[in-house]
């Protein structure tokens, strides 16, 4: 009999690896998390934490920890386009659902609101909870290579404290080792697209900028400065890390040239230039270079090896999809591995990971890159093309504010160009509506057509392959309970109504037959009353119908009214 040191070895403690280890530990799976350095991310990097990721953290019982550390939406959304922080404003984009017209849409879509949670704060939350729930954290441990056979994976690791190598045998390996993933490379995962499209530098710094920003609170201040076209989008970015004294500045460099060394003096010069204050007291805390990529794996797994996060999708920060997509990869994969490790599902279930997540990866890589390109119309409206100097920027703005027919035309163009940026800063559909087609979903062929732009607007539906919509119910103590709170926590759920007694019986039988801890929720019962009537409006089934919901909150199967077939559906879905 094969001996395993652990059931799952996770390589990397970024958003993908940290959440994979936490999820697996929460589901009771023996997990080792091996990561190269002595602690988590040391620079803020990804930060926008969207509603869907907050729902994952809520399911894990750590939403409150994230909220305690994050910056709330009211301090996030006034995205500013300007010539410097002290200079003229070109325009603003009310972002992340904070505009009056989108705030209700975001609020109605989820029990969670989005926050700004830099990686330096998110990663320790994930790792600490993973360790507290039983995952073994191996810091200073570098993954070298792996070999897999029919029964498991043997990984060779380097203990960077002692300097010696050791091996670890696991049933499964998750490569969450970032954009230069050795695991993905060794697994031979096919990567499409383009790497190294443009060069960017991150400069982190501390400086009190409250007088320039507190009256227009935002995460992002885009600054049109000469030189910003080089490797950039034509604007530098001053990004809030903590309001209003900790910052990350992004500036481009020419990727055709050797990577530049950025001294603290040069970094301070760039900071002062974008702020527009040559005497600003500033402390540079780090500088680093990164490249803009447009690449994605078309297959996320090979045998017993699965990759997640930047290992399989690499894209610019536009839309704030980096760590969100990584966490959501892990959320898709972890419950499947847990069920297979426990013997509750056949290995065929694992095929659905790649089938479901690879299309999402391609979609978000394409979206982020398109959003990056969609700054172009702003420059066109101002009559600015390519590199330019401060005078040309000032002339462009003057033409755009002139009380002339030409000025009016330019203003119209600028307005349309700013409107287009909703696809980056208010892409609610992109953030919330990832749809799955795989062997872990049984479609019923009923999918109402989208009545609004599916990238901009969330569309709640119970069509199999979609996420269970959120509506408020009322729980036994009279408090509101989200539909999302009635499912998840690693378990499958049957949702039915008061007259769905046959489904309750079928669920009890299917659970017993399959040895499955199948939860049954009766909407309308004291535990989940549809007091507002929203469930009846949105459920897509009759009261005596049934929704079968996966542990990740996705609808796997739907039966519109009374009927049969639950056990057979579960057998197919679980590859039993
Ligand atoms: P991530 O790269 O976060 O983590 C990989 C992990 O694997 C790390 O813990 C690493 O130490 C470990 N590892 C790697 N090789 C290993 C090995 N051989 N053995 C053991 N451990 C190994 N996104 C965004 O939305 N907004 C932003 O502003 C930015 N900014 C930004 C700046 C810079 C400089 C970078 C590099 C990236 C960004 N990103 C970003 C992207 C964002 O950080 C990224 O999408 C997520 O961190 C991806 O999370 P992962 O967990 O997949 O990889």
From TrEMBL:
Keyword Oxidoreductase: yes
Superkingdom field: Bacteria
GO MF annotations in UniProt: FAD binding; oxidoreductase activity, acting on paired donors, with incorporation or reduction of molecular oxygen, NAD(P)H as one donor, and incorporation of one atom of oxygen
Pfam families: FAD_binding_3 (PF01494), Rng_hyd_C (PF21274)
Keywords, alphabetical: FAD, Flavoprotein, Monooxygenase, Oxidoreductase
Chain ranges of the FAD-binding domain: 5-368
UniProt protein name: FAD-dependent monooxygenase
Species of the source: Amycolatopsis dendrobii
